[in-house]
TrEMBL record:
InterPro entries: Aldolase_TIM, Elp3/MiaA/NifB-like_rSAM, MoaA, MoaA-like, MoaA_NifB_PqqE_Fe-S-bd_CS, MoaA_twitch, MoCo_biosynth_MoaA/MoaC, rSAM. It comes from the Bacteria. Signal peptide: none annotated. PROSITE patterns: MOAA_NIFB_PQQE (PS01305), RADICAL_SAM (PS51918). This is GTP 3',8-cyclase. It comes from Panacibacter ginsenosidivorans. NCBIfam families: moaA.
């Protein structure tokens, strides 16, 4: 079974299926985009299915599909359908920007996807264009409507950015009054394809909470689920909930149960570690499942204690110039 050197059980994999995206969010990548990976550099769907099957046999119970944007990769529903049939997998979920997702919602429901994270940093169309450099908010809202119509749980993820969408925090919270959604505010992180773009985090999780409390002083703390990355709250008489994710402050590392696979097959045992094992190369070099499993166990047995240690070890190798699109969120 997958247990790290700090006694943390690993049962959750975030699989990024592509580095490409149809938005250009300024906090994720430069306006011109990235130097996209060639098709040969990406894991094939067969390779993704093989490594996920192996990990499920080793105790992984949840797989989240991420990107980039998953739905820009051709025939993504074929992979999702195959993953949904893995014996032992309890949860198949995905994170999407919603631009291309709406037509696929009925099929997502059919294969058993019960929860979707929808990225949406604002409800204002002009601000959406400023943040993403694309005029796609109507498509995202259509995806939200379709997900709710098909009774799929929705978590709306909003990155909180100083000077960009602070005035959008309360309108997003107000969505929870009439909709059964969880609106989660995420601390901005230093991965935008251009290195660290700020030296100090102005809107940390406590400041975000205080902003919400000013408008909703009766907001109540909920009991957080095991391994939760968010601090969760409820406003009386609201259908939905509010969450705050301390992604930059890294307050949840002690219970972290997740690992990440990049589109090119790199294993990240921490969001901040930069990659520790290329599983695609192992498969293409002809290693058996048993040999790959042993290397997986070895990598996880040398996992950094938390994101700060991982970041420090990584920075010793040189400056970081990376995008969230290449990591998988």
């Amino acid at each position: 079974m997958l247990t790290d050197n700090h006694g943390r059980k690993i049962n959750y994999v975030r699989l990024a299926v592509t580095d490409r995206c149809n938005l250009r969010c300024f906090y994720c990548m430069p306006e011109h985009g990235l130097d996209w990976l060639s098709r040969s550099e990406l894991m094939s769907y067969e390779e993704m299915l093989r490594i996920c099957s192996l990990m499920v046999s080793m105790g992984v119970e949840k797989i989240r599909i991420t990107g980039g944007e998953p739905f820009v990769r051709k025939d993504i529903m074929q992979l999702l359908t195959s993953l949904s049939k893995l014996n032992g997998l309890k949860q198949l979920t995905l994170t999407t920007n919603g631009v291309l997702t709406a037509p696929h919602v009925p099929e997502l429901k059919k294969i058993g996807v019960k929860s979707v994270n929808l990225s949406m940093d604002t409800l204002d169309r002009n601000k959406f264009f400023t943040i993403t450099r694309r005029d796609e908010l109507p498509a995202v809202l259509e995806t939200l409507e379709q997900l709710l119509k098909h009774d799929i749980d929705v978590k709306i993820n909003a990155v909180v950015m100083d000077g960009k969408n602070i005035d959008d925090i309360i309108p997003l919270v107000e969505l929870t009054k009439n909709l059964p959604v969880s609106v989660r505010f995420i601390e901005e992180m230093p991965f935008n394809g251009e290195g660290n773009h700020y030296s100090h985090l102005h809107w940390h999780y406590m400041r975000i909470l205080r902003k919400i409390q000013e408008q909703f002083p009766n907001i109540e703390k909920l009991v957080d689920a095991p391994h939760s990355t968010s601090y969760n709250y409820h406003i009386p008489n609201h259908r939905g909930n509010v969450g705050i994710i301390a992604a930059y402050s890294r307050t949840f590392c002690g219970t972290c149960n997740r690992i990440r696979l990049t589109p090119q097959g790199m294993l990240n045992t921490c969001l901040y570690d930069g990659g520790v094992l290329n599983l695609k190369d192992l498969m293409r070099n002809g290693l058996s499942d048993e040999e790959i499993a042993q290397q997986l166990l070895n990598s996880i047995s040398h996992r950094a204690k938390d994101g700060f240690v991982a970041e420090r070890l990584r920075n010793e190798k040189g400056p970081v110039h990376e995008s969230m699109a290449t990591i998988g969120g």
